[in-house]
């Protein structure tokens, strides 16, 4: 990273302009690990077309929180199925752990939205990283049970993966603001 020292300050390069004909969503998403997920998720929100970089970060955090909330609903549905005897007691315990983890992830993402509004980008980083860790912990709960099951995945593997990708993109966009 190039730094220019001016009056004792280190100026970090920011996303100031886009290439000719390139919109801000595309230019911003080029700085993420999951470009396609970034573009499609941000563009699913109509206001992203007229947003500035900070508003894109807000949208990305909100998308992550919304997806976490939908995943928590999915956990409740799976737990209900488990209560009806279609899943093992171990699966039920794993789902209870996932319920707790996603509740924490939602809390972390709500707090990260406030931190972003206050310009506390380091706190956003910490809180979104914690939310990602919550999803990983949910996934890890199933690994022991499934290790003997010929490579099966947890019932939440795809949701956990996509949630982590959304959060990763939100982190990358927020870092452009710092």
Describe the structure.
Strands 1-2 form a two-stranded antiparallel sheet. Helix content is 69%, strand content 3%. With 178 residues, it is mainly α. 34% of the residues are buried.
Show the helix and strand layout.
Layout: E1 4-6, E2 9-11, H1 24-29, H2 35-43, H3 53-83, H4 89-117, H5 121-146, H6 157-177
Antiparallel strand pairs: 1-2
Helix pairs in contact: 2-6, 3-4, 3-6, 4-5, 5-6
Q: Output the strand order for the largest sheet.
A: 1-2
Number of helices: 6
Which structural class do the helices and strands define? Answer: mainly alpha
- Span between N and C termini? 13 Å
Number of strands: 2
Q: Kindly provide the radius of gyration, computed on alpha-carbon positions and rounded to a whole number of angstroms.
A: 19 Å
Q: Label the overall shape.
A: elongated
Poorly predicted runs are 1-14
Biggest β-sheet description: 2 strands, antiparallel
Run of helices and strands: EEHHHHHH
Mean pLDDT: 86
Assign a percent range to the helix content.
55-70%
| Beta-strand share of residues | under 5%
């Amino acid at each position: 990273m190039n730094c220019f020292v001016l009056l004792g300050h280190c100026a970090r390069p920011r996303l100031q302009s886009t290439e000719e004909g390139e919109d801000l969503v595309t230019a911003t998403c080029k700085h993420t690990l999951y470009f396609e997920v970034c573009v499609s998720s941000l563009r699913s929100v109509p206001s992203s077309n007229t947003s500035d970089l900070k508003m894109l970060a807000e949208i990305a955090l909100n998308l992550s929180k919304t997806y976490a909330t939908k995943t928590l609903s999915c956990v409740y549905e799976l737990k209900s199925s488990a209560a009806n005897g279609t899943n093992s007691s171990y699966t039920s315990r794993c789902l209870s752990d996932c319920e707790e983890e996603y509740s924490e992830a939602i809390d972390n993402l709500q707090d990260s939205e406030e931190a972003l509004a206050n310009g506390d980008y380091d706190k956003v980083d910490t809180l979104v990283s914690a939310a990602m860790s919550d999803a990983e912990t949910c996934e890890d709960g199933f690994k022991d049970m499934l290790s003997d099951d010929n490579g099966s995945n947890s019932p939440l593997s795809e949701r956990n993966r996509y949630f982590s990708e959304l959060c990763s993109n939100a982190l990358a966009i927020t870092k452009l603001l710092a």
